Amino acid sequence: MSTEEKSLNFIEQIIEEDLKNGLSADKLRFRFPPEPNGYLHVGHASAICLNFGLGIDYNAPVNLRFDDTNPSKEEQEYVDAIKRDVEWLGYKWDKECYASDYFQQLYDWAVELIKKDKAYVDSQTSEEMAKQKGTPTTPGTDSPYRNRSIEENLDLFTRMKNGEFEKGTHVLRAKISMSANNMLMRDPIIYRIMHAHHHRTGNDWCIYPMYDWAHGESDYLEQISHSFCTLEFLPHRELYDWFLNQIYDPTKVRPKQREFARRNLSHTVVSKRKLLQLVEEKHVTGWDDPRMSTISGMRRRGYTPASIRNFAKTIGIAKRDNLIDVSLLEFCVREDLNKIAPRVMAVLDPVKLVITNYPEGQEEWLEAENNPEEEVMTFRKVPFSKELYIEREDFQEEAHKKFFRLTLGTEVRLKNAYIIKGESVIKDENGNITEIHATYDVDSKSGSGTEASQRKVKGTIHWVSIPHAKEAEVRVYDRLFTNESPDKDKEVDFKEYINPNSLKVITGYVEPSLITSKELDHFQFQRLGYFCVDRDSTAEKLVFNKTVGLRDTWAKISEQ
Question: Could you say which residues bind L-glutamine here (predicted)?
């Protein structure tokens, strides 16, 4: 990487400094280390983009390592989902690793700690250990089992491994200092007993390593040069280094832990525990519900990998936590979809329009451009007939001067078609308009090249031909939470802020070209927003999710 090409963030500066101080560039190796206890969310997306982006920038390998040390919460489903998400974002890992790959080595190293009198088996209850831990301002007190003999500790630890004890009866603790200023250094737990089936190792183990023990040692075994974590792991760095000191070989790369700030997103939660609550309590339809902040939810909603990568690049890396407005993410999505999404016509709140002077039974197939952003313009054919659907809001019987859509006595152009003039309406017994009658200018066909076709009118509206229209279920999404920081107030359950109107399901009509669309195909419904095909969609029943509007209306609503 040329440091002159761009300004470096503080993480890149750390790497550059290490390279200047003698670290060989071919020793650079990064990792993304998710715990497979849930689906990844937008915060993980930023971490993925950071680590794999560094791999690309420095031409260095990146490992995908699963921190699978807690089998009671981990499942193969989550492993598969994580791999799918990373690949979908456009990244490839060098090695697929698991902390469970190293269970035997971690155990052997723990035995060595015991032999060096740097670890002991504690038989207190968790409540007793919590009491003797002390506080940030007062030192802790030693466990009554802290001075067990090495022989007794080795015997107990072996029997723990062999499954002779119940969960909670013993733990293995590092022997550091009960008066350390950093409370994480006060004889932290290394192993606990868990009689739980592991998704990879089955029932081979009855004891499992704690994250702090497995994290740095796994980095060391994989020869990771830089281990980047979020800020909550800053107090853990001292322990990370202490554990490494016990095993480090100076001829090998010593991993370096450094921390960056979480980038929280407004109107969302990014705690896997809280996301799991939403799923289990059925506030959403699943981990991939398009209202969720999960990567799978964003994918199903129609967000693109490029837009998420660009979002991560835009918000950058910081040293302090910050709340990012979700509108910025939506801007990135909108910007990408504007370039790639074909323009099609759909009507979501239909009212019937009859062109009274159009020949009965006649139909035409008119030419429509697919995307004006294309370098080489392509076109499709759309059917036109005497009876059309238009949006109900595109017509007013009596309109103010700035209403440039269809009214009685005024003209408007039908997109890709003719200029029409409103003539009359038919209403039901309640006064609701059921039909609009209009006439068309036969010489005003869009793109016909005649003089009339160039005639200008102030408004253009979209439409679909009723005989050709395909019915579609359209799911329109709003923010899942009404509060921009739903989990900030610890006195209020975050679920109190769930938006009861976060999903609106409507029946609309789309042009027939969409009958062959496939899952995750993106479209701009002209004048309405960006939509994508949902996985529930079939040839018999089309289903679309609204991805994002054409413009940021939320900011305006918030201001009001």
Answer: 67, 211
Contacts of 13 (CB under 8 A, 6+ apart): none
> Domain 346-462 carries which CATH code?
2.40.240.10
Please check if 270 is assigned to a binding site: yes
Enclosing H/E stretch for 352: strand 350-355
Q: Is 36 annotated as a binding residue?
A: yes
- Residue-by-residue DSSP string for 142-196: --TTTT--HHHHHHHHHHHHTT-S-TTS-EEEE-S-TT-SSGGGSS-EEEEE---
Return d(Cα 491, Cα 495) in angstroms, integer. 12
Per-residue b/e over 478-489, b at no fewer than 16 CB within 10 Å? bbbbebbebbee
Question: Is the distance from CB of 215 to CB of 209 less than 8 angstroms?
Answer: no
Q: What is the pLDDT of residues 144-203, one digit of tens each?
A: 999 999 999 999 999 999 999 999 999 999 999 999 999 999 999 999 999 999 999 999
Q: Dump pLDDT digits (tens) for 361-381.
A: 999 999 999 999 988 999 999
The annotation status of 125 as a binding-site residue, yes or no, is: no
The CATH 2.40.240.10 domain(s) of the chain lie at 272-342+472-559, 346-462
509 appears as a binding residue in the annotation: no
DSSP-derived 3-state class of residue 16: helix
Other beta carbons within 10 angstroms of residue 410's beta carbon come to 17
Identify the CATH class of 10-260.
Answer: alpha beta
Q: Is 67 annotated as a binding residue?
A: yes
Numbered ranges of CATH 3.40.50.620 in the chain: 10-260
What is the pTM (predicted TM-score) of this model? 0.91
- Known catalytic residues are 35, 262, 272
